[in-house]
Amino acid sequence: MTALTTWYQGMKGSIRPVIHFRHDRLWEVDALRGVAILIMVIYHLVWDLYGLAGWDIEMYTGFWHYWQLTTAIMFIGLVGVSMSLRYHRMQAKQRLAFGPFFRRGLIIFSWGVLLSLVTYLYQPSTYIRFGILHFIGLSIILAYPFLRFRWLNLIVGVGLLLLPEVTSWRHALPWLEWLGMIASPHPAFDYYPVIPWLGVVLIGIFLGHTFFPEGKRRFQLPDLSRFAAMRWLALAGQNSLLIYLIHQPILIASLILLGVVKPL
Question: What does the alpha-carbon distance between residue 39 and residue 64 come to, in Å, rounded to a whole number?
Fold first, then answer.
């Protein structure tokens, strides 16, 4: 009986929830990412009402265009901030290496490839060729050499954002569509080319180095994560990839069950 009790206590101590709030992270960064994922879900819900239910909503200009643009800038900028934080943590442990960044980028890029396959099976003419997951995965790899710099990230980042506006160069090679600067991109559900969006990642790295030097905030901030709403936002931010992958199937299934969208 004693041995059984000891075994049970050991097992009980080893069990952890799959999704749990991590206290070893900067809650404000996670909360901002949580806000980004929340407004992204709202945007995709509205898009489903437009694209699947046929509601008369102007998605590509005006309010919803800027809503989507804000979401993308927040999400992609926080990729750079998170990279700078990870860089400082690894530097403090004297374990700085390219491998962890490469693996993380490859995993996210692979999920993008899976979404390409799913959307191709659904609608070949507008499937995702190089969407936000492809871009984030590749940008984590491409931005690694810039992690040791601060101001250079701001300069190059702004330059990449301005490049499409100050040059008339456009290529017509479909296999370079991921790079951007293409004369006629294929219509797609999701498209985030390296130019200009890598500029947002680099500016995020600059902001990370500026506001969180050595991975620690340089300003005083009360711990708002003790409040339930902020904790949930931060928890969503800590699990943003999972939410991104599952939210659309949940939204579409819910709309079908409510009778708003007809089953495929």
Answer: 11
- How many angstroms separate the CA atoms of 128 and 98, rounded? 28
pTM equals: 0.87
Span 113-152, pLDDT tens digits:
999 999 999 888 888 999 999 999 999 999 999 999 999 9
Domain count, the chain: 1
Cα–Cα dist 92/153, whole Å: 21
Please state, as a whole number, how many other Cβ atoms lie within 10 Å of the Cβ of residue 192: 25
- The SS3 of residue 130 is strand
85's tokens:
């934080």
- 3 part of a folded domain: no
Torsion angles phi and psi, residue 182, rounded to 5? -95, 145
Closest CA to 243 of 255, 233, 230: 233
Q: Identify the sign of the CA torsion 152, 154, 160, 165.
A: negative
Q: Is residue 176 part of a domain?
A: yes
What's CA 90's distance to the chain center, in Å? Answer: 21
Residue 78 lies in a domain: yes
Tokens of 106: 């490859």
Query: Considering the domain boundaries, does residue 194 fall inside one?
Result: yes
| Residue 250 lies in domain | 26-48+59-257
